[in-house]
Design goal:
- This protein is of the alpha/beta class.
- The protein is 34% helix and 16% strand.
- It is built from six helices and six strands, in the order ββββααβααβαα.
- The strands form two sheets. A four-stranded mixed sheet has the order 3-2-1-4, covered by helices on one side.
- Strand 1 and strand 2 form a beta hairpin.
Length: 173
């Protein structure tokens, strides 16, 4: 059984999801793969402690603070490859960006491979079920250009601006 609650972010409505203990999802309304990791029934239940903690985290984030990801119990559902990519996303410092290629090199090193596909990494990044908190918005293309964001490229730009990331005209498309 899954539980959900709504969160009114400055970038639009979000749905938060939990297994009762951990946060398993945070999606913008209309986001690609919206609710994709919830495989069973979901019940609206606003009073869960994990939801109070997630809303507080998001309020502080949008208020200009830099809350630590480790403050929240996270349990994103995905393959071991996707979870490895999401773990790397959690290491990207606030206000900084890395490329898909950077992540691919890390995954290759972790798995003892000579190389890893940037496209495979892109697929895992795009399927991140916990938007903002697991910061997939901090991943950019090889030349620093902004590439897709499941929540919408406009939201990616606003999140990066919020964090003070300097963007070149190429990034603004």
């Amino acid at each position: 059984m899954y539980y959900t609650t709504d969160y009114a972010s400055p970038l639009g409505p979000m749905l938060l999801a939990s297994d009762g203990e951990s946060l398993i999802g945070a999606w913008f309304e209309g986001q690609k793969y919206f609710g994709g990791t919830m495989t069973g029934k979901a019940e609206q239940k606003d009073a869960l402690p994990v939801f109070a903690a997630a809303k507080d985290w998001l309020d502080r984030y949008f208020g200009g603070a830099k809350p630590a990801i480790s403050e929240l119990p996270l349990a994103p559902a995905g393959s071991s490859f996707r979870r490895a990519v999401w773990d790397i996303l959690c290491e990207i410092p606030y206000g900084e960006c890395v490329t898909y290629g950077d992540i691919a090199k890390k995954i290759a090193a972790q798995t003892g491979r000579a190389s890893m596909s940037g496209q495979a990494v892109g697929g895992a990044v795009g399927h991140n079920p916990i938007s903002i908190i697991i910061p997939c918005h901090r991943v950019v293309g090889a030349k620093g250009n902004l590439t897709g964001y499941a929540g919408g490229i406009d939201k990616k730009i606003k999140l990066l601006e919020h964090e003070g990331v300097k963007q070149t005209p190429r990034q603004r498309r």
